[in-house]
Amino acid sequence: MLQAELSAVIWDVDGTLVDTAELHFQAWLVLAGRIGKPFARADFAATFGLRNQDIIPGIFGTHLSSRDVAELGERKEESYRAAARQHGVILLPGARALLEGLQTAGFKQAIGSSAPRKNLELILQLTQSEQYFQAVVSVEDIQRGKPDPEVFLIAANKLAVSPNHCLVLEDAVAGVRAAKAAGMKCIAVRSGGQHSETALVQAGADRVVSNLEQVSIGSVRQLLSAS
């Protein structure tokens, strides 16, 4: 029988825990405007869930040095955080109930994100959800971005839970691939709407849901028990 205290749920943030896609898109537009480069929604959709250091060279030019990429990425994130503070951020429907239910049931929980730590700390503060997570893994903690499994494996290690006893909640194709490469179960959530159900299934998602209200503690237990 599954022991919740020996199992974990690892959450992606942007598009899964909160819907910050438009704030990110607008921050990219601000950056692109400042440097005189085009940036379209198609660019955003194609790169959603990846690290800035993987996005920027592909969109703005491979001639950029690593220092240039880091500086541009920080400028974009500063715009994003300013907008998040100004407009506020709320948890997606079903998120708080699921967070509370998992906590009550004894599951460990962590954040596994390609976002900067400052972004994650701000989101957790704005949504008052810090208390649900025993570990936070950000882009500063990893050498390789999704679809590499490193981010989720580090989260599992921090929680002292075996990867095959972990379930990942994700919204992006790259994140689903990372979860499966880590040997974890994965529920893909389409709240953000950046990826089709077909694409998420093809990436390896064990289940695809329209929103977190469709994820129950029972469904989490069932998937993990099948590990």
What can you see in these coordinates?
By secondary structure, the protein is an alpha/beta fold. The chain has two domains: 4-19 and 90-225, HAD superfamily/HAD-like (Rossmann fold, 3-Layer(aba) Sandwich); 21-87, DNA polymerase, domain 1, CATH 1.10.150. 48% of the residues lie in helices and 11% in strands. The chain has helices spanning 21-35, 41-47, 52-60, 66-87, 95-105, 117-127, 150-159, 173-181, 197-203, 217-225; strands at 8-11, 108-112, 135-137, 166-170, 185-189, 207-209. A six-stranded parallel beta sheet has the order 3-2-1-4-5-6, sandwiched between helices. β2, α6 (117-127) and β3 (135-137) form a beta-alpha-beta unit. α3 packs across α4 and α4 (66-87) packs parallel to α6. The protein is globular and about 55 Å long. The mean pLDDT is 94.
CATH architecture of the largest domain: 3-Layer(aba) Sandwich
What value does the Rg take, in angstroms? Answer: 17 Å
Number of helices: 10
Mean pLDDT: 94
From the helix content, strand content and strand pairing, which structural class follows? Answer: alpha/beta
SSE order, one letter for each helix or strand: EHHHHHEHEHEHEHEH
The gross shape turns out to be globular
Can you tell me the residue ranges where pLDDT is under 50 for at least 5 consecutive residues?
none
Alpha-carbon distance between the termini?
12 Å
* Quaternary structure annotation: single chain
Q: Spatial order of the strands in the main sheet?
A: 3-2-1-4-5-6
Summarize the structure.
48% of the residues lie in helices and 11% in strands. It is built from ten helices and six strands.
